[in-house]
Amino acid sequence: MAEAIRRHLPQSMQDLEFVGPLQQGMEKIASYLAGSLAGMVKTSSPFLVDLFILLFALFFMSATAKAFFAPPALDSFLKKAIQMNESANHAT
Question: What integer pLDDT is reported at residue 75 of this predicted model?
Answer without folding.
Answer: 72
